[in-house]
Design a protein that fits this description.
Order of helices and strands: EEEHEEHEHHHEHEHEEHH
Helix content: 25-40%
Strand content: 15-25%
Number of strands: 10
Radius of gyration: 18 Å
Structural class: alpha/beta
Length: about 240
């Protein structure tokens, strides 16, 4: 078991955004995370990555308790992520942005800047951004920023990547390119994926298992086809017309 979460809870004041969630991910799995807006999906990823601290519960990664670990420690253990709203360093080039990921990643504390930038260039080439390596992040298109997020995540040499709505804001053609890019990443790097996505076609085709959150609680966990035919899920999230 790569990731194991037990009775995780996060409250903001009197509001419980994540309510006693327990789940696990096996090595090599591609697991979707769905639910309506406000269900607690991004909050859950923020807890796993150390961006938020849990109110209670436990998070283990490959047998190591990371519940109270700092984000940089979690990253070096092998967990990386993308953000729903891209968060580059806007005044750095694409190459420098990915270089930060390389130098902050797993087993790389003594890497030279030159070697780090060389690895960053390989990551940019993988996502199709090598030609934009000297472009400032603020001048990239939305699709290019999404690709940059994936390149930075890969640069940390992760074992688990959490993807937060990589399709958001993309047109249909760009969405297809993004899906293919994630598919290549999974195929070539053999990493575990935990994927928030609202486009059900993507979840149905790209994931092996789906976890559903509703009002911060886990209400379902199973194969995609089983999930979309569950009346409880239809009522909570999918809607009769979609089902």
């Amino acid at each position: 078991m790569l990731l194991n979460i037990k009775n995780l809870k996060k409250s903001f004041g009197g509001l419980a955004a994540v309510r006693n969630v327990s789940l696990s991910l096996e090595k090599g799995e591609i697991v979707g995370l769905i639910g309506p807006n406000g269900a607690g999906k991004t909050t859950l990823m923020n807890l796993i990555s150390g961006y938020y601290k849990a109110s209670s519960g436990q998070i283990e990664f490959d047998g190591v308790d990371i519940t109270d670990a700092r984000p940089h420690v979690i990253c070096r253990l092998g967990i990386s992520r993308t953000f729903q709203v891209p968060r580059p360093f806007p005044d750095l080039t694409a190459l420098a942005n990915v270089g930060v990921g390389v130098l902050c990643g797993k087993h790389r504390p003594n890497m030279s800047l030159g070697d780090g930038l060389l690895d960053a260039a390989h990551c940019l080439e993988f996502v199709g951004l090598f030609g934009k390596r000297n472009t400032l992040a603020r001048d990239l298109t939305l699709f290019e920023l999404r690709a940059l997020e994936l390149a930075r995540a890969l640069a940390t040499t992760p074992r688990l990547i959490m993807i937060d709505e990589v399709m958001a804001g993309l047109n249909p053609g760009e969405a297809v390119r993004a899906i293919k890019l994630v598919g290549r990443m999974i195929e070539e790097y053999h990493i575990t994926i935990f994927w928030i996505e609202h486009i059900m076609k993507v979840i149905m085709e790209a994931t092996q298992r789906v976890i559903v959150l509703h009002y911060g609680e886990k209400i379902a966990n199973g194969p995609p086809k089983e999930i979309v035919n569950d009346p409880k899920i239809v009522e909570a999230y999918l809607g009769e017309k979609i089902a």
